[in-house]
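User: Show me sequence and structure for the first protein, then do the same for the second.

Assistant: Starting with the first protein.
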Amino acid sequence: MRTVLIEGSGRALVRALAREHRAAGARVLPEWPEEGAPDGPDEVWFVPLGPQVTDPGRVLREDREHMELLLERCAGHGSRFVYVAPDPGGDGVRETEARLRERLTRAGVDLTVLRAGPVLSCDGPPAGLALLDDAVRWICSYVRERAEDHLKTWPLRVLGSPDAVYEVAWADETARRLVSAQQGDGTARVLPLPTVLSLLGKALDCRIVLTRDPADLTAIDRLLASRLGASLPTAGPSRPSAPADEERLYRHFRSPRAARPPAESVADGTPVVIVNALGQGPGYWSRLRSLLGRRRRTVLFSPRGAGLEEHLAELEDFLDAEGIGAAHLVGWCTGAKTVLAHRARRPGSVRSITLLNPAFRHPGRPAELDSPYEQRLDSVADLLARDPRRAGRVLRILAGGLFEERTEDDEHRAAERVLATPHPGLEPERRLPFADEDALLLYAAQLKEFWTHDALGPSGGTEAPMLVIAGTLDEIVTLGGIREAAGSLPGARLVELESATHYAMFERAEEVAALIEELTTTPGAPATGDREC
């Protein structure tokens, strides 16, 4: 019986090939036999991902390392090597083929190169159509969490050409052609972009409209576009084509998605210390701490005292109690001032700094850099400083004023209002500073004292890299204020998250975690002053 080993990161096609080989009478090995085992595979098939992947650099590195190991084993055993090359492939694919042919010829190993276009499967990689599917599912969930009926009233819009098509094959069809020694693309199946959008909208209970005019896009549409990147097709079919099975595509869109396994945990010696905002609890941080905790210890410090000096003393006591010397610091909102002040005192202990939606209000700053929210809280704090007995009445007023809901008749304003609305699960957390009279009085006193400090002074001599993250729909602090502050911090890199609110660490945890991981995995690397949107 012929034995086959099938490997590579193109998971959907790997599984389909295994089914086809078994149907053809072959024995499919789950892995290469242990060293010293008498039997190795007669054939080794390697299936890399196609050209449209979300992280091609990482995937190519992983594929290259894995393929190197398989090539060594094939040369020692005499197994035939079958390389399923992405089609269409770029220069990198052709160079890989040339190197493979040269190396295996020297080793006396038979090489067969087959070609396969992008494949589609319910559990396939996020390439081509699946990337569109992922992005639209994400935006639908994000919008419905905030305004359940918004997508019943307004459509989603995608910028593209009505003549554009997807050229794909189903994984099982492609595998059948490859196992029968044909090329995997055969006659391409064509899916016009308008048809795909219509079927996807029907499956997800929303309307998706194609437009050529960027001015038609709302804030929600622009957020969707940022998730899609350049993945949408732009032209008609590039080869002979046949219509795709629309009903099968609709069933694919309707089918549930298997959860992706979490990334492998890798321990790191330097912990992340999150410095919370004044008056806030731990609930905002559950998602981000879970993601960061896969790589390193992540702890949360929440200041309790009435002033910055007390907060710094509390932070130092906290770090000593936790046994933390050097750390990556993350400061949110007012926590940014505490982080910078701690850096000035103990610069050698800071490995990196992330300032998330930082609040830098102080007396010498132009008033236009203060948000309406900060201005209202300033008035409240002044009032309570003069007469603390009015706290109860202020609470009743704030209950209807700081967290009001608004509706909009204009589609563009409605989209912005939806995205600017914090996740409803955060409502109890957002009300913590206003839980009772004592909480309000402490919060007001903390803010008044905190606003007297200008944190954008000397850096304390540290060269630790610094990242500043802003949300373009933050209504607690202004984007202008964050930009001005980032510009005055030497070496700081500013990243603006499209349509993110003040609570990006919860609502956009994956993006924030990726940015922090990028910063903290290369500690000591020089920071840039680039601004990204």
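Switching to the second protein now.
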Amino acid sequence: MMTGEAWFAVLPDGMPGLAAARVLRPLAGRVVAHHSGRPWLMGHWPDGALTVASAGAARVAVAGQHPATAGSLAAALARTRSVDEADPPAAAVPGAFHLVVSAGGRVRVQGTVSGTRRVFATRIGDAVVAADRADVLARLVGAGWDAEGLALRLTGATAPFPFERATLWRGVREVPGDHWLRLDPDGGSVEPRRWMPPEPVLPSSEGAPLVREALTAAVDARTAAGGTVGTDLSGGVDSACVAFLAARGPAEVVTYRWGGYDGADDDAHHAALAAEGLPGARHVRDCLGQVTPLFAGLSPDAVPADPDEPFAWVRSRARVDQLARTMAHEGARVHLTGHGGDELFRPVAGPHLADVRRRHPLTALRQARAYRAPARSGWQPLLRALVGSRSPARELAALADALTGPPPLPHPPDTGWSPPLRMPPWATGDAVAAARALLLRTASEAVAPHSRWRAQHQALTLARFTGVSAGQADRIGSRHGVRFAVPFLDDQVLYAVLSVRAEDRISPWAYKPLLAAAMRPMVPDPLLDRATKNEFRADAHLGLRQHRADLLGLCDASELARHGLVDAAALRAALLDPHPTAATLAALDATLACELWLRAALAPPPLPTAPHRLPDLADRRPPPPPPEPRAPATSPGRQPPDRAPASPPDPTAPGPGSPTAATSPDPDGSPPPVPDPASSDGAPPPYPSGIPNPRKATDTS
């Protein structure tokens, strides 16, 4: 965890949670209390990062990208009788955010299905505690790193299924995005399921309007507040759709694209067409000499990596930082990207054919023949792939056996639950053995796919890969005051897209047919009809040449090599060799991401973000019942401090333990004193300089 970065932890409303709060105290600069007065949210976050509201004794906090206000949250909370009922109101709010509810002594915590907002949990003493960052919990409990898990990450820049939900910190687990975490007063927890993929039964004619509605709401959630927002305008279909939707809102739009070194790609042409259709937007383009090269900023003395987990976009890390700085200079508060479009509308062909075969065998055969034609592959391998029915567990065992096999062939289309896995040639025998052991051990257990439909399983797995990386990019942007948004990966958009039949969503004869049908009324046809995509291979090779010395320095001081996971000499040779295909570069990406993550994981913990001592977290018992009603006051003005309220408190109004009450100013503009439940006389306790009063730490933006 880098000093000063934002994070929050969630504690149960009971004595075990109070004990855990004492462990969190050295790092926490902000505290928000349960109605009982015990700490509920602790952490370090900027003003406005949380929207907090209350209704009676219940509390709700939302962190992320959403249009909700404290008032709308309070109104929804007033209709909620328990944390079990909190999901339907939240599901109606577009965007991507954490939801935390405290009601009836229990706590609900949830993130997003795609992993753009994640929830982690571990046990501190007798209490299960949640947080939005795995590394924070790992530092608190002294968790070590998982060598087997890191070895498996060498197979690709992202963790393969089903390990994409496993952290690399021992003892810290991730709550699946389609579940929510319930924290009980006694310190226990359960993880009920909250989201299920729909049955993919809608034709495109019925599903496209739903996709358009969900995507429009997702973009509106980021633009509704006005101001200035940024969008990608690479020339691709996905970024064009987001940009045109953003331009319909009240915010000023600034588009951004960087010049590529591949003279054969047609991104510039399509980006120019898109810019012509957005006359009200400002268009920013970094030319070739201004673009930060790929693989920049990865030297041994570079900025530390995100210690949550390896960053799959490692080669672009410096470009993400440049984009954030550029958008900050343009005054943008958020930047919308088209990431997620490929994952939903143009994934690698194959798994969907298994689904189509189950319902429409002839359609599956026709599509398979179209995919087979360019490679001129034989029919027998293709038919075997179509009729294959291995379970996810059996497939994991087969993947384990093939870890050191030759590179997989692109044809026939792979219809399995997971793409093939290969260890890089510089992985040591110990690393291969560790990865294989993890795969085989997992294969011996029950392995449930994300959906019984392989195309849905593939889409959710890919969305998860991209969502986690987008969340890490968001942290990079937040250092410059710019948040990154990926509207395609919002829960509501995922649900709308996955409700459409696989054969209508993915086709060998049309490029992203469902997205084109959904956006046809809003985006010009020449942009939607584009059927090409730039892979930035020239940029990658140029960046590798320019920064080879830095990468060799990283190799010579490799922590992966020191811990026996890679052969430093073989890795050095690979850095010096040419890379004719994208596959070898992808293997290099995975190793660089793991190397930088391990360096961050092994680094000493940073200085606390809250160097001052928080007030003593004594036994916080529930506040006493309200006093008996007294005679009405003789003056309509404010009561003196030693007078009781003129009438009984409204149970639905913010009370003394209410976050909103803690931020309601007196007529002179200063917040009123808030009694501490642990204090016998009701006077607020003293707070050290620089540390906010926990009862005044609420953000109600």
